[in-house]
Design a protein that fits this description.
- The structure holds three protein chains of three kinds.
- Chain A is an alpha+beta fold.
- The two termini of chain A are 49 Å apart.
- Chain C is α/β, with parallel strands linked by helices.
- In chain C, the strands form two sheets. Chain C has a nine-stranded mixed β-sheet, sandwiched between helices.
- In chain C, helix 1 (14-24) packs across helix 5.
- Classes of the chains: A alpha+beta, B alpha+beta, C alpha/beta.
- At the A-C interface, helix 9 and helix 11 of A face helix 1 and strand 6 of C.
Chain lengths: 761, 82, 231
């Protein structure tokens, strides 16, 4: 087996050499561009670097022009608490008292279809490292999962693997899982979505950035050894120098070791506390290629790297493979020479391996040597930041006109006429897979570790205490609705934002920042690009109106099988701040004799609803109207009310409407309630189906102690929030909806909790 | 590469949930001819040179003291392999 | 009163155990796995987690750590030692407690609020409970199934060495519903559930009174302080 290396000298001397740029995913234009940048053909290693750093996943080439909106549609007021905005590993928000939090959501979709367990596990590992890289201690995780139809036998394979993978990795890291969502829909059959979110806390002065600025500082790779993980495609290069077996030995999947990452977390936090690290980057997609070029480019400096110094798990790796490897649990630190001794003492204490790869130089050039041979000599900026920017064709999907006309009302979708039928539909809905209890899944996650979890599933947001002295904490909610987005991607994105915002407000926190994970089909499909354009605009406009900025996020394209794309599924995460987590508001009532109020107006809005899906297997029309001004007013009311301790519980209304909300609130602590709907029917001009199942926005149900009634209602009226008393809690262990039915809570609980275990247990 | 192989199995009379899970899966796949499954570990100890008798004795001690938990496992094999 | 909390590579609940010690009113001493010095602590807690990645067997490699040499010695001499979850596994691998802990019967990691019956109050860590008291302590593990041969079981039952039993639900297939054990002297106690997650109002298990208000776990830590103070 030959190990001849393609050097920069070779590149100058053999300009006509055929190179597999196409197999590596580059376009001819891009290959020519690289030649122009370098003034010669690229070496094998350089070609590999550009191909992976200019890929959609790393360069955001199809989405950049739209993502700009998140940075442009902002006001100074909105960004005043932003310590670090978009473009870094994760955004950082000031939450007061000298504390900041960093959070982000990312996707690991395609690997999770190929190898669900490792795909999901390494997805968690990757996002946690991003948080760690900012100088923060990771304090919680959440996940947003979308699987295919429950009846399809392949779905179970993916569900079991993904849930076990998240459980395995997250639990082993000692991070509480505080919430998320799980949705089943046949559109995700061949394209499951596995999005993972992490949040970390840091003191302002501990912030770290991924930049190498000071010439002479050392470049150190530490953590796990480098192996052949995730380099599948790049082995095309290896075949030039290997025998026929070569490529087949190279896996496309990464394998994670959470124990190694846990040790890395503790090691890094100690390095940070000792202030021996000037900059730090984690190695994720594109491994060393990314870390070296980004650190250099961000610092407007350069680097000299000796690739043979990389500690290998597999000595047969070629230089190209080393540069592309996606072996997990690795970090790259920029360490001032005078701090090297202290640095090595700490990593050795934690028994973490490290090697000095080189140093930072003034000239903005990245030089990588393999022994005495120079194999990379590029401007780092061209690799990391000046990648191609596409303006993909955008085409309005004409089928949408018909789909929008195809509403619940225009189709005359049958509504129940008898109370018994309505009652049956309620049970059908709350026990349907998307609406049923997910505790079979979430009981596989640790939500206690750390001792700071104030709220977790099934409450409306996950809430974690940051300061043990004062109770200062953060709340996070994530939401998305692919069905709404299919009907109208602009409104759909706003709806997801509104729901996450409302969830955070319902738990007593003040929304402060946004992250997003945009899951779409192929950007080469102009109709998908239209959906993307609409959704990003909807989200950016929505954030501007609500006054909270996007701090970072992720784009996942190519979620499609053949020509059929998934529903556009932008996942929106909202982070809120609460001055004392003791004030948090649970989603269900625990006291009897409390009045239950419905805040907001209900319209007949069943298009795209769970009712239309479960009862009629229908998707058509236009999604519910969004009124962000109203959401803001509602959130402010909830905040004000919770500051005064007026609200005993609050639960927002979304999928499944009022019916779902009252069932969930009753089952939360097993406290029954009695409801009457005649007033809402009259005030909002509705029939019972709309009253129970409409998914109008801007609504929350709250329970209020008798002694606080007058004050609470007064507060609503003063702020112009529509408020209607619709029920009262009682210790009957029954749920009664007048003129519809009375259910035993035990029966409802059985229906609600048995669906998922029966399908997947 | 000179090696000593150590094989550890869960004790026969104790519960082996992993083995049981695999046995059930095989039954479901139609392999009624497999009546039971037990899952253990194979551990390889690597040496510079061919292991001596002393090395083998030491390996047996390591197997008994550390590589297995005598309460729940039995060492069923310690042997040299080349 | 100084209570040592051990950290192995992969230990996860050490910070929680430290908080529990502080809330109970004692001083925390962090004990690093590679250090044999116990710094004159009056008691030791082996917290939960995945020490050494659970490699080989849960707790097997941790049991060989330098700090464990000192702890085994001290425990044999009467030092109170509490092993929680992975800590219980370390105690079993160290032979300070008998039996073994294997994969949960249902093959999944499970996190739930678990009801336990206190079966023995004659220990350094349970003297604050009433015999037969039912408490609620969070449980979270994948390898929590307690297992022992018939002879050992008979001895444990006969000599009253069961410290806790699972009540209402056996979450992992442990024989005889055993959730925790004590040694003969009563200074060493090990259990699978996590008392350190039920020590602070607002962050423990739900109770009928209020969400997350359960603090049954605090008694473990006040018990040992009580015993040491009154020794």
């Amino acid at each position: 087996m030959t190990t001849s290396v393609d050097t920069t000298k070779d590149a100058k001397q053999s300009p006509e050499k055929a190179q597999p740029w196409k197999e590596l995913g580059l376009k001819l234009e891009e290959y020519k561009n690289i030649k122009q940048i370098l003034g010669r053909r690229p070496t094998s290693a350089e070609l590999a670097m550009y191909s992976v750093m200019w890929s959609e996943h790393c360069s955001y080439k199809s989405s950049k022009i739209y993502l700009r909106q998140f940075g442009e549609k902002v006001t100074p007021e909105m960004t005043k608490n932003l310590v670090v905005g978009m473009g870094e590993n994760a955004g950082v928000v000031d939450i007061g008292e000298g504390w900041a939090v960093t959070f982000k959501v990312e996707s690991h979709n395609h690997p999770s279809y190929i190898e669900p367990f490792q795909g999901a596990a390494t997805g968690v590992g990757g996002i946690v490292r991003d948080i760690l890289t900012m100088g923060a201690r990771p304090i919680a995780v959440m996940d947003q999962l979308r699987f295919g139809a429950v009846a399809n036998p392949d779905t179970a394979r993916v569900v079991h693997g993904v849930v076990s993978g998240i459980s395995f990795y997250g639990n082993c890291l000692g991070l509480p899982n505080i919430g998320g969502e799980t949705v089943f829909d046949k559109v995700y059959q061949g394209n499951p979505l596995v999005n993972a979110l992490s949040v970390g806390a840091l003191r302002h002065e501990d912030l770290k950035l991924a930049k190498a600025t000071n010439p002479g500082d050392l470049v150190i790779l530490f953590g796990a050894r480098t192996g052949a993980d995730g380099i599948g495609g790049v082995s095309v290069l290896a075949s030039e120098t290997f025998d026929a077996d070569g490529p087949s030995r190279r896996p496309a999947v990464q394998v994670g070791d959470p124990f190694a990452e846990k040790v890395l977390i503790e090691c890094c936090l100690e390095l940070y506390a000792a202030q021996v690290v000037a900059g730090i980057q984690d190695l994720g997609g594109a491994g060393l290629s990314c870390a070296t070029s980004e650190l250099a480019s961000n610092g407007q400096a350069g680097m000299r790297v000796q690739l043979k110094n990389v500690l290998l798990r597999d000595e047969s790796l070629t230089p190209e493979e080393i540069l592309m490897s996606e072996s997990q649990e690795r970090m790259m630190a920029i360490v001032p020479k005078e701090s090297l001794k202290a640095f090595t003492a700490i990593v050795e204490k934690h028994e973490v391996e490290y090697s000095v790869l080189g140093e930072v130089i003034k000239e903005p050039r990245l030089y990588i040597n393999w022994g005495d041979e120079e194999i990379v000599n590029v401007p780092p900026r061209s690799v990391a930041h000046d990648g191609p920017v596409y303006e993909r064709p955008v085409l309005y999907p004409t089928w949408l006109d018909q789909l929008n006309r195809d509403s619940v009302i225009n189709n005359n979708l049958r509504r129940a006429t008898e109370a018994s039928e309505l009652a049956e539909q309620l049970v059908q809905i709350v026990s349907s897979p998307n609406q049923a209890s997910k505790s079979w899944i979430t009981d596989q996650y640790d939500h206690y570790v750390g001792g700071n979890t104030a709220l977790a599933m099934p409450d409306d947001s996950g809430m974690v205490r940051v300061s043990e002295e004062t109770g200062l904490g953060v709340a996070i909610a994530t939401d998305a609705n692919g069905r709404y987005c299919q009907l109208d991607p602009y409104q759909g994105a706003k709806l997801a934002l509104a729901e996450a915002y409302r969830n955070v407000a319902s738990s007593g926190a003040v929304p402060a920042a946004v992250t997003n994970c945009l899951n779409f089909g192929s950007p080469e499909n102009p109709e998908v690009m239209w959906q993307f354009k609409q959704a990003t605009a909807g989200l950016a406009d929505g954030c501007l109106e609500l006054g909270i900025p996007v701090t970072g996020g992720n784009v996942s394209f190519y979620n499609q099988t053949g020509d059929v794309a998934i529903h556009p599924t932008p996942v929106v995460g909202v982070l809120g701040v609460i001055d004392d987590v003791a004030r948090r508001v649970p989603s269900g009532w625990q006291d009897q004799g409390n009045n239950i109020y419905l805040l907001g107006i209900t319209r007949d809005e069943l298009d795209g609803s769970v009712w239309s899906e479960v009862i009629h297997d229908h998707l058509g029309g236009k999604p519910p109207v969004v009124d962000l001004k109203g959401e803001k007013a509602l959130a402010e009311l909830l905040h004000g009310a919770s500051l005064q301790g007026l609200v005993a519980s609050a639960h927002d209304l979304s999928e499944g409407g009022l019916a779902q909300a009252v069932v969930e609130s009753s089952l939360r602590f097993g406290m029954g309630a009695r409801f009457w709907l005649n007033e809402i029917l009259e005030r909002d001009n509705l029939d019972l189906t709309a009253a129970l199942f409409s998914e109008s926005t801007g609504r929350v149900i709250v329970s209020v102690g008798r002694e606080d009634d007058v004050k609470f209602v007064g507060l609503c009226e003063a702020r112009g929030i529509p408020v209607l008393r619709i029920g009262v809690t009682d210790a009957s262990e029954k749920l009664e909806i007048q003129d519809v039915a009375t259910w035993n809570l035990g029966d409802l609980k059985q229906a609600h909790s048995s669906t998922i275990p029966e399908l997947f247990g | 590469m000179p090696k000593i192989i150590v094989e550890v199995m869960p004790k026969a009379d104790l519960l082996d949930p992993a083995g049981k899970a695999v046995a059930n899966a095989l039954q479901r796949k139609g392999h009624s001819e497999v009546t039971n499954v037990r899952i253990g570990k194979r551990i390889e100890l690597h040496y510079e040179n061919t292991p001596t008798d002393a090395d083998l004795q030491a390996a047996k001690q390591i197997a008994a003291d550390f590589l297995s938990n005598g309460v729940i496992e039995d060492v069923v094999n310690v042997s040299v392999e080349n | 009163m100084k209570i040592g909390v051990v950290t192995f590579p992969g230990t996860l609940d050490d910070r929680d155990a430290q908080r529990a010690v502080r809330l109970a009113g004692a001083e925390v001493v962090s004990l690093w796995h590679a250090d044999t010095n116990l710094h004159n602590v009056d008691a030791v807690v082996l917290p939960g987690g995945f020490s050494f990645g659970d490699y080989l067997r849960c707790g097997a490699i941790a049991a060989q750590a330098p700090v464990m040499e000192s702890i085994i010695d001290a425990a044999n001499g009467g030092l109170p030692v509490l092993g929680i979850c992975n800590g219980f596994q370390v105690l079993v691998e160290s032979h300070l407690l008998p039996g073994g802990l294997i994969r949960n019967e249902h093959q999944h990691f499970i996190c739930r609020d678990q009801k336990l019956i206190v079966e023995n109050v004659d220990t350094a860590w349970t003297n604050g409970f009433k015999l037969g008291q039912e408490i609620t302590i969070p449980l979270k593990n994948g390898e929590g199934g307690y297992i022992a041969d018939a002879e050992t079981l008979n001895r444990l039952e006969g000599e009253g060495l069961i410290a806790f039993r699972y009540s209402e639900v056996n979450p992992n297939g442990s024989v005889n519903n055993i959730a925790g054990l004590k040694n003969k002297k009563g200074n060493v106690v090990g259990l699978m559930p996590h008392p350190e997650h039920a020590v602070e109002p607002g962050f423990g298990p739900d109770t009928a009174v209020a969400m997350r208000s359960g603090v049954d776990g605090l008694t473990f830590f006040t018990s040992v302080i009580n015993q040491l103070v009154n020794a």
